[in-house]
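Sharing a chain and its predicted structure for anyone who wants a worked example. Both blocks are below, sequence first, tokens second.
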Amino acid sequence: MTTADAADALWDFALARYARPGAQARCLSLQDDHGYDVCELLWLAWLAEQRREPAPEAAPGLAGVRHWQETMTRPLRQRRRELKPTLETRPRLSELRQRLQQAELLAERETLARLAELPSRRSSAASELTAPHDRVAAALALCATWATPTRAQAPMADADTAPPAYATLQPLLTLWLAATPDAEPNPSC
């Protein structure tokens, strides 16, 4: 698969999974309440679905992607959100907010393209992963290793001792990786 094909495949995966009923609310909770990067979670779920995992040499590239998110995507999101309460008294700012939302979406697409470019390898447990539940377990393991929430600990396998984010992360990964028909893509955040 070429780099462009991988970027398009990850983008399509992200749109389809984000559009599934209940996914948006869970994504926003993990992002806003627990500090997870939803693009990273989508990338890790996409890799798990393909029975792949990030190669160890992906770490420096992932740091670059995180820098992009911190300096480009998050500031756009913050500006867009800051405008929302202002719209009642200044409706003319609606177009600006829409353009910020479009820019944020383009920045997220660039993030996913950069993630798709990172080196990956066949998962060491790939031969054992056949059921959707196994893909969820693989995705949870990848999240525990690779996803770095800014305001929570990484999820643990034991739900009784897991941090609060686990209660949202595990069902979200199940929703994304379960064999269900996708909803219509809805790229608006």
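Comments welcome. Residues 3-177 form one domain.
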